[in-house]
């Protein structure tokens, strides 16, 4: 949610800021801006709309300088227009701030500052911060070194809320001051004293792969001499330099028209990466490095709570079914945003599993913290290495799916389900609820997945044709049962978020308790009906829809000749064990949503109102 980038070094800063912002655009894309320091002034350019609009402005009104800060916004306070775009600048133009997060006490602080004569020019919460820094700076004694840092630190001590910020000032030039609390921030360590500040490694990867992840409560000062980090209110700290283990090609489209399509097509490879070195066929078990040393604790667990949002919540639902079915542990899946605020009861011997592609989702992070504070053991299933959730959980399993840029999650979802399957096998074997032979059956099915997904992707053209038939539909219903109820929810979410068509996911059998009233010849119904344990029941639901004139797109097993005759359109998927069918069902539904959205001319990778990483509650 909002992307920040800053640079200080020997190169012209504006092109580097633009390059970084483009890589962060997935975090927010309603307006953008830069502030560049040059000869004792701050040159500020900002524009509503995408980074491309800012780029055009910079061609018309160029800025030169070797250090500065930039921002791409996802609006929280105030509409997405030029005046609300960051950086926000003090009245005298001496201070500029970019901010990711929310200042909850902005209203109160604004009144106090207005009382002191400050005049505000935007509707944002962030503007309060720049006035506050200016006020503190101006009233502080003397011109001692580190004055900007002290003013920022004092201002932050008055802030309630979350932030990742970068600040520059003509009054204490030659430095960028950065700080984080609840919003991600890192330092990119380049060559020849070139240093970056960014929300995400994607912004700096073209220049350096060496990054320092800041912790909540850290502040950093970045100059031509390098960087220093200290804890707010305490002394200096050493944060390790990490090497980013993916490269530039992974954050580029690689010839595909959209990141989403690239990421859908990558799934055979990403699933392999997720499982690499983790499957033990002979033992009918798995080896998860992140859980080493936890066997005793995991044997004792009496309850699991899965936390997540959106797509990650959907994979969590599949996880619930798996864990109860095979590891026989009572499991609940919670919307992270609800969990934290309803005073949840977390009993002793509870394990929480926080699922998040980004590892930065505020709702999930705070729910995890709540559970941890109540004594739960915390695991994370996360894609973004080094992000906040894996750094705060007791243990975890990375997806290793590579950067996911398209706002609609695809490859992260299938990898999440695979990790949940592996955790289920691990717990089942550890606790004796899963035999070696059943374990082997699951491991074998997991091994077959990449090949099966490859095969499914060959139907891209056929699904494109199907999309043409339904591009003008105004509503869709997605039905599934058992393991495929979450797949129905996920199919519907994919369609609505990128095509803006209203779509509902429902448990197939629940249809007759209400939604059946919606069915007529105008309503396409996607029914996920592989030959699994609930096949016969779902089959009856299909008949109920047909009897009311509904039009069925069936996701069915490839050897199901009988249903093939019943449904209006068939998407056939290979056979696998029940628990893995949602992976195979989801891939063609990702393609269906993608092609419908492309035909409708929406911005597939950056759908309206959304952001990839939601770091506000
Ligand atoms: C998925 O397509 C969404 N854009 C969204 O629901 C997402 O899954 C959710 O915001 C959670 O994100 P996370 O996995 O990064 O925590």
What does this protein structure show overall?
With 617 residues, the chain is an alpha/beta fold. Helices cover 36% and strands 22% of the residues. The protein is built from 19 helices and 26 strands. The strands form five sheets. Strands 3-2-4-1-10-9-11-14 form an eight-stranded antiparallel sheet, covered by helices on one side. Strands 5-6-7-8-12-13 form a six-stranded antiparallel sheet, with helices on one face. It has a five-stranded parallel sheet with strand order 18-17-19-20-21, with helices on both faces. The termini are close together. Bound molecules: 2-deoxy-2-amino glucitol-6-phosphate (AGP). 2-deoxy-2-amino glucitol-6-phosphate (AGP) binds at residues 309-312, 356-358, 361, 364, 407-409, 497, 613-614. 2-deoxy-2-amino glucitol-6-phosphate binds next to helix 9.
Give the SSE layout.
Blueprint: E1 3-8, H1 13-24, E2 31-38, E3 41-48, H2 51-60, E4 67-73, E5 88-89, E6 95-100, H3 106-115, H4 126-139, H5 147-156, E7 163-169, E8 176-181, E9 186-189, E10 195-198, E11 210-213, E12 218-223, E13 226-231, E14 242-243, H6 259-265, H7 267-275, E15 279-280, E16 285-286, H8 295-300, E17 303-308, H9 310-327, E18 331-335, H10 336-339, E19 350-356, H11 362-373, E20 377-382, H12 388-392, E21 395-398, H13 411-430, H14 436-457, H15 460-470, E22 475-480, H16 484-499, E23 502-507, E24 524-529, H17 535-547, E25 551-557, H18 561-566, E26 569-573, H19 581-600
Parallel strand pairs: 17-18, 17-19, 19-20, 20-21, 22-23, 22-24, 24-25, 25-26
Antiparallel strand pairs: 1-4, 1-10, 2-3, 2-4, 5-6, 6-7, 7-8, 8-12, 9-10, 9-11, 11-14, 12-13, 15-16
2-deoxy-2-amino glucitol-6-phosphate (AGP) binds at residues 309-312, 356-358, 361, 364, 407-409, 497, 613-614.
